Amino acid sequence: MIFKISRDIAFKYPDLKIAVLVGMHVKVNPVNEELEKLKRKIEVEIRNKFTPETLIEHPFIAAWRDTYRSFGVKPKKYNPAAEALVRRILHGERIPTINTLVDSYLLAEAEYFLPIGGYDLDKISGNIYLRYSPGKEKFVPLGHPQEIEETNPQEIVHSDDIKILTRKWNFKDCDQAKITLETSKVALFMEAADKRIPIEALESAIKRLQQLISTYCGGKITTSIVIPREKLEWEIM
Questions:
Q1: Distance (Å, whole) CA 169 – CA 177
Q2: CATH of the domain at 174
Q3: What is the pTM of this model?
Q4: 193 dihedral zone (left: phi>0; alpha: psi -120 to 50; beta)
Q5: How many domains does the structure of the chain reveal?
Q6: 130-152: per-residue pLDDT in tens?
């Protein structure tokens, strides 16, 4: 399977870096009490350090808000993935309990303020792409399999050969490729499109994510850092 990045995206975002984690033979469980305790701990730390008003001062949050604006998305209306999660925490909500693999990446997202999304690789058709949408492509949002949305022209999306996987770069994942208790092969993507997010932060975050998934889901876990300005196609499995 190849991960392909649009040349236009690589040109527009010369500082783009993408950390990719691939997990094979993972075992996904409904819940893990130790993982739940870690989630409660980071929630307290976030609430002690930030308010909804001061959150946008964090450089990673500010960077992703600017990235959204750069392709025509209003971040106040459509919060980038990590910001949306942290804002829910600041408003008193807990990090959701979905399953041990999803919970692991939500925890890492809350710890590092970097967006993370991913897919069950057995539900992917062909390759995975990061590209611009021409608009009016059908999308089935996560948790709402009966709903159909359409992409906007020049919206940045992830897709495979037949369907949109994620809208607005990392705003919303599709339902068809979601990670469930039956998932055994997974690919996760963590992205930084702005120079305010150094590669060292991405490397630290993907290392933490690898540790969490190895601990709570097992399997064979590999990671890599994709630099689109160097190469547009990367073999991920």
A1: 16
A2: 3.50.40.10
A3: 0.96
A4: alpha
A5: 1
A6: 999 999 999 999 999 999 999 99
